[in-house]
Amino acid sequence: MEYAALIGEPLGGQRLDVTGWSMRQLLDGAALLTELGAYGPGGRAHYGGQPGDPDRLHWTGDTLCPPVTPRGQAPAAPFRPR
Predict the structure, then answer these.
(1) Phi-psi region of 42 (alpha: psi -120 to 50; beta: other; left: phi over 0)
(2) pTM over cut 0.85
(3) CA 31 – CA 43 distance, rounded (Å)
């Protein structure tokens, strides 16, 4: 298994299993469900990679998980890191 360290709040110090992730996926990062972020339960902490540093994902911000979108309606706007 391969792991990437999460750097920065709210999940800093934990490790994420990135086994099988491509370099592109590591750079894109992940939006991880957590109740520890700015939005509490139902929030996501966003972590992204940096070129030349594949073993660490850096915190880029928190977002509230969008509600489930009923069929026929547009999805919520995408996350824009700060």
Answers:
(1) left
(2) no
(3) 9
| Whether 57 contacts 4, CB under 8 Å | yes
Range(s) of the domain holding residue 48 = 3-64
Reported as half-sphere exposure (CB side, CA atoms, 13 A), residue 51 has a value of 0
Average pLDDT, the chain: 84
Our count of domains for the chain comes to 1
* CA–CA distance, 27 with 47 (Å, rounded to integer): 9
The answer to whether position 71 is within a domain reads no
Two structure tokens written together for 73? 């309606």
Would residue 11 count as lying in a domain? Answer: yes
Nearest to residue 57, comparing CAs of 33, 28, 20? Answer: 28
Taking the C-alpha atoms of residue 21 and residue 26, their distance in angstroms, rounded to an integer, is 6
Identity of the amino acid at 20 = G
Domain assignment of residue 14, yes or no? yes
